[in-house]
Amino acid sequence: MNGLTVVPVTTRADLRAFVDLPLRLHPRHLAVPLLASTITSWWRGTSPHPGPVELLLVRDAAGQVVGRTTVHTDARLDARLGVPSLLFGATEFADADAAAALVGALEARAAGRAQLFGPVSLLPNQSGGVITSGFEERGFVDSPWNPARVPAAYEALGFERWGESDTWVVDVDPTAARRAPSEAEWRAAGLRLERGRRSQVARLVPEVLAVLNRSFAALPYYTTITDAEMAAATDGLGFLVDEDLLLLARDAGTGGLVAFVLVVPDITAFVQRVGGRLGPLQQLLLLATRQRHRREAVLVVQGTDPDRQGRGVLTLLSRTLQAHLAAGGYERLRSTFVGRDNPASARQFARFGGRPLHGVTFYRRPVA
Q1: Is residue 366 part of a domain?
Q2: What is the CATH number of the domain that holds 17?
């Protein structure tokens, strides 16, 4: 196939080529590279993923890298999808030929599997996907970005869309600072508001994880996140968190966590600038300059305990969040993808003038 070969990543030089490929393929101001430390943990086998992860490269006849992907499986996602699946992720290709070469390599590794499914990354929660609209809008941390040619390449190879969703963007209304819920509204709901503190992030993570797993359990794309996966996903969060944007709703009587919203300052521009290599020196620089990244924010995840859903708890938190964003001088809020089968979450953005930013989909194809 035009002199293309698919080879596993076996050396550090291969690993560097894997990390660098999207930096060569895509405009730096649009695409957001995966963190090099995360990719390295997959290669070394030190990530919390329960099974092995293989990293593959496509090289042309001259040895130039023109494609990459990961190959792995996950019994939790198999259970959600209803069929044994070979998963692929962190997938990039320069053209249709490189994409076809990758798919051929996946097929060759798919013995005992009913379908190919992806692109999914490994942390957190098998995230990933392909954007299908909004290509002129930059990506942001924890969300995909790809050029417009990518969906057509998958679909030409026989892949079908699955789990279509949207990322969202809300332009913050400066007057929202005056419209936070009153103490009386919180009391009437039987709740009290709590801000997360940087010093308490490690203690809060298990509590948040329990509500997160319960609140998302009914969604078809959700796989239960383990303690180890959550720890990896939130590593370093305490240094980044704006305490006014980590909001917790607790039962006024028991103190139990009912709902939460986790929003972080948007460090996308910094991650783009360093090419995803967020080593100790870059982390210190980010910490020293974190005030520069407080014009825009990213909603990473929000959740409400199933027993309290539909009672306006998330609306109270969303109103509080918008007030705090405005008071903090933030101008824009972006959200990671929300499934189109989850209109309740989407309404929390639409009520504040939000709009879909990128269409997002996963792809699946039966194994030949």
Answers
A1: no
A2: 3.40.630.30
DSSP state at residue 117 = E
Cα–Cα distance, 296 to 58 (Å, whole number): 36
Same domain, 145 and 175: no
Q: 133-184: per-residue pLDDT in tens?
A: 999 999 998 899 999 999 999 999 999 999 999 999 999 999 999 999 999 9
Q: Are residues 215 and 290 in the same domain?
A: yes
Determine the structural domain holding residue 110 and report its residue range.
Answer: 5-166
Contact 140, 32 (CB under 8 A): yes
Looking at 177-186, 289-298, 306-315, which range is the least confident one?
Answer: 289-298
Distances in Å between the Cα of 50 and the Cα atoms of 30, 53, 76, 123, 163 are 32, 9, 10, 12, 24
Same-domain pairing of 16 and 36: yes
Number of domains into which the chain is organized:
2
Listed residue (176, 185, 232, 220) closest to 342, CA to CA: 220
Q: Do 147 and 193 share a structural domain? A: no
Residues 75 and 114 in one domain: yes
E strand spans, the chain: 5-8, 54-59, 65-72, 85-93, 115-118, 130-131, 160-171, 191-195, 246-251, 257-265, 296-304, 332-339, 355-366
CA distance 315 to 327: 18
Q: How far apart are CA 153 and CA 151, in angstroms?
A: 5
Q: Measured on CA atoms in the order 243, 247, 249, 250, is the torsion positive or negative?
A: negative
- Cα 67 from Cα 91, distance rounded (Å): 7
35-76 pLDDT, tens digit per residue, is 999 999 999 999 888 889 999 999 999 999 999 999 999 998
Q: Are residues 82 and 178 in the same domain?
A: no
Query: Residue 42 and residue 120: Cα distance in Å, rounded?
Result: 13
The set of residues, in sequence order, having a beta carbon less than 8 Å from that of 199 and lying 6+ positions away, is: 238
337 assigned to some structural domain: yes
Position with higher pLDDT, 160 vs 368: 160
Structural domain ending residue among the three candidates 131, 166, 201: 166
Q: pTM of the predicted model, to two decimals?
A: 0.90
Task: Work out the angle at residue 100's Cα, subtended by the Cα atoms of residues 22 and 44, and round it to the nearest 5 degrees.
Answer: 50
